[in-house]
Design brief:
The protein is 7% helix and 53% strand. With 348 residues, it is mainly beta. The protein has a single domain, classed as YVTN repeat-like/Quinoprotein amine dehydrogenase (Methylamine Dehydrogenase, Chain H). The strands form 7 sheets. The chain has a 4-stranded antiparallel beta sheet, with no helix packed on it. Strands 2-3-4-5 form a 4-stranded antiparallel beta sheet, with no helix packed on it. It is globular and about 50 Å long. The chain starts with 5 loop residues before the first helix and ends with a strand.
Length: 348
């Protein structure tokens, strides 16, 4: 009996070509990148005894931080030599912080207020309300330009009083628009636009109030509505997060880091170390920093190595981060000592 091997041969060949083509399409841009360096020299500056949650800088000699605690220490500024802390009249409990250059810095505060710093003075930029309410818990700010940015957070719900009613306001072409967030739950923690698919992705934290588990939820926005694409319990080892790296959104899904391709999650890195704290920052796909429960680690597409260890554990956190070509800054908060510190890494 004669067996026809050509159909099987052509099927195998086609499959091989498909695999090779897929590999080239997904790895070629990354292959052109150089692995991020690790030879940082680290210095540590104590800011003060308040917790600082946000950091932004136009350069390594122009850094800003906002946090909680005493009003007269709620804003911090680093000029390349030392941190100065102060308060600004009218800015109460600043949370969100983002800028576009040294003369365009925005801060969100209580009662739906947005403030702008023009390099010399602070002025009230906007007072927002939603459904007649102004008691926003603004969480942060992110945007593309000073005329195209988002402010986000939450309003109290009627069940447990937590800020689970999501709020996202978009400032564009000198106008404010409150996005329809009826399909969302939780205080909005992050909003980014993904250059790969031109979609907006957001992360919320939903408080359960002892009735349900606290949750971390990721939503996708296609310019018309929000769709939940991932959710998990908000706890170490399982929680979700998102971060923008080189204009692409990376997704932390428990111990897996993923990208979004054709409407599906595509695994980028599986972090097997149980000390991974589900938070990342990065300059490129070969230059990613990972928060660990005992320090800061780095991934260069080959392996993961520690850059430094915390002096106090557990419950030490990294909140705000500012990354530059040869200098990096990490806001480290020790809950046990109550100290906020700036870990400054520099490459010669």
């Amino acid at each position: 009996m004669k067996i026809n091997i050509f159909p099987a041969f052509f099927f195998t060949l086609s499959l091989l070509l498909l695999i090779l083509n897929f590999s080239c399409n997904t790895t070629e841009p990354d292959d052109e990148l150089k692995p991020g360096r690790r030879d940082y020299t680290w210095t540590v500056d104590t800011i003060n005894s308040s917790a600082y949650y946000r950091m932004w800088g136009s350069s390594p000699v122009d850094l800003w931080a906002t946090g909680s605690g005493d009003w007269d220490k709620s804003i911090g500024n680093f000029d390349g030599y030392r941190w100065l802390t102060f308060g600004v009249d009218g800015i109460i409990n600043p949370k969100g912080l983002f800028g576009f250059d040294k003369n365009n810095l925005f801060v969100s505060a209580e009662n739906g207020r947005i403030w702008r710093y023009n390099g010399n003075t602070w002025t009230l930029f906007a007072e927002l309300s939603k459904d007649g309410q102004t008691n926003f818990a603004f969480n942060d700010i992110w945007g593309i330009s000073s005329n195209d940015f988002y402010v986000f957070g939450g309003l109290p719900d009627t069940i447990i009083g937590a800020f689970n009613n999501s709020v996202i306001a978009h400032y564009y072409n000198n106008n404010w628009l409150m996005l329809d967030t009826r399909e969302m739950n939780g205080i909005v923690a992050k909003v980014y636009k993904n250059s790969k698919d031109n979609k907006i992705y957001s992360l919320t934290y939903k408080a359960g109030g002892g009735i349900d588990p606290d949750s971390s939820i990721i939503y996708e926005y296609d310019q018309s509505n929000f769709k939940k694409i991932y959710s998990s319990i908000w706890t170490g080892g399982l929680q979700a997060d998102i971060y923008l790296i080189d204009n692409e959104v990376y997704f932390v899904l428990g111990n897996q880091i993923a990208r979004r391709v054709n409407g599906q999650f595509q695994s980028f890195l599986q972090v097997n170390n149980p000390k991974f704290y589900q938070r990342i920052w990065g300059k490129s796909s070969k230059d990613i920093f990972l928060l660990m429960t005992d320090g800061l680690a780095h991934y260069n597409r080959s392996d993961i190595q520690y850059l430094f260890y915390f002096t106090v554990t557990p419950r030490t956190q990294i909140f705000g981060v500012a990354l530059f070509e040869k200098e990096v800054f990490f806001q480290v908060y020790e809950s046990q000592t109550g100290l906020s510190m700036s870990y400054h890494g520099k490459i010669d």
